[in-house]
Design goal:
The chain is of the alpha+beta class. The protein has ten helices and eleven strands. The protein is 42% helix and 16% strand.
Length: 346
């Protein structure tokens, strides 16, 4: 996970750099991928709009545990010192006041440091959704300050970009450029932060939704949706989100990792409970009103009843095979549609 763009604002009012130009992702041009990966980021999909979470959501809140521990440890020490100074005095009033001033001066930078990072996630928003409207070709981005960016799909400069972290994580940035086509005025990220090849698969999922007639097939590729729409996550989903396994081989590490997952899930839950639910403005809701007879409508309401089986990669063989066959058929159909339209260009 990278919090670049949340703790530290994106760099703007600058020219595009060489990497951004080299890794540009073009609208109207299919990427060469085998799979179309939604990375479990889809909140809702229908034939009018696709709504996703932001790139911070997958592990959102889990990094606050260190800052919370530091902050409340300092508070506890301070309270204990005050109690000891006033109720179990060993010095006079003057000496006690001097000690309190010294302690306050010494600890205040740590309070500011931990509090700053805590308040970047606590008491903010539960997530920062992005909505893609395929009917009017507009993109709506819920900014971290609560305002909404509305921009035409074709006017966004998309690019893969390396995250400024030690891990080899990449994300997809959307730049809003000045009239010169070179100066970055604003930046946002799509809802994925992972390896480079997966970000390309994610891009193609989004691009196909906006530009190709394959919405039912894309909907078939969604295994579950985060329950983020108009509500806050409960502790159970916070834990399920962190535990989600790609295969049963990951069971080997579960006994060691479970305590860490529990602590991280609790930290994520606090972020969810204290967060505000993002609300789209009326003009966005009106522009994205779906057809009541739309055959495609997938959201958290369609999540599997036996969610824990999915989380632990423990579905029955028949259920797994049926799901695999369905997703494979959808993937092959999307490739057939793209091949028919673009021929040898893919």
């Amino acid at each position: 996970m990278s919090v670049y763009g949340l703790y530290q604002p994106y760099k703007v009012n600058r020219p595009l750099n060489r990497s951004e130009k080299h890794h540009r992702l073009h609208q109207g041009r299919p990427a060469k991928v085998r799979y179309f990966n939604n990375e479990q980021s889809v909140i809702r999909i229908n034939s009018t709009y696709l709504e996703t979470v932001d790139k911070f959501h997958k592990e959102g809140g889990t990094d606050t545990q260190f800052f919370a521990l530091l902050f409340f440890m300092l508070v506890s020490i301070y309270i204990y010192f005050l109690y000891h100074s006033f109720f179990l005095p060993t010095k006079g009033i003057k000496g006690t006041i001097i000690d309190i001033v010294i302690l306050s001066v010494v600890t205040s930078p740590f309070y500011f440091f931990s509090g700053y990072f805590l308040l970047k996630q606590w008491f903010k928003w539960t997530h920062y959704p992005i909505r893609f409207n395929r009917k009017n070709k507009m993109v709506y981005v819920f900014r971290t300050n609560g305002s909404v960016l509305t921009v035409p799909w074709q006017d966004i400069y998309f690019t893969q970009d390396k995250e400024p972290v030690i891990l080899n994580d990449w994300s997809i940035r959307g730049h809003i450029l000045d009239s010169d086509g070179e100066t970055v005025l604003e930046t946002f990220s799509l809802g994925v932060c992972t390896d480079k090849s997966t970000t390309l698969e994610y891009w193609e999922f989004i691009r196909c939704y906006m530009e190709e007639d394959v919405v039912p097939e894309l909907a078939e590729l969604i295994m579950f949706c985060p329950p983020a729409e108009d509500r806050k996550e409960g502790f159970i989903f916070c834990l399920q989100n962190l535990l989600y396994m790609g295969s049963r081989l990951e069971w080997i590490f579960l006994p060691v990792m479970l305590p860490f997952y529990l602590v991280s899930a609790f930290s994520r839950y606090i972020t969810s409970v204290t967060g505000k639910i993002p609300r789209w403005p009326r003009e966005v809701l009106d522009a994205c009103r779906p057809d009541p007879a739309d055959p495609v409508s997938i959201s958290a309401a369609n999540n599997p009843e036996k969610m824990w089986r999915l989380v632990f990669a423990n579905e029955s063989h028949d259920a797994w095979q049926e799901k695999y066959d369905r997703m494979d058929a959808a993937t092959n159909k999307i490739h057939a549609v793209l091949a028919k339209r673009y021929g040898h260009h893919i």
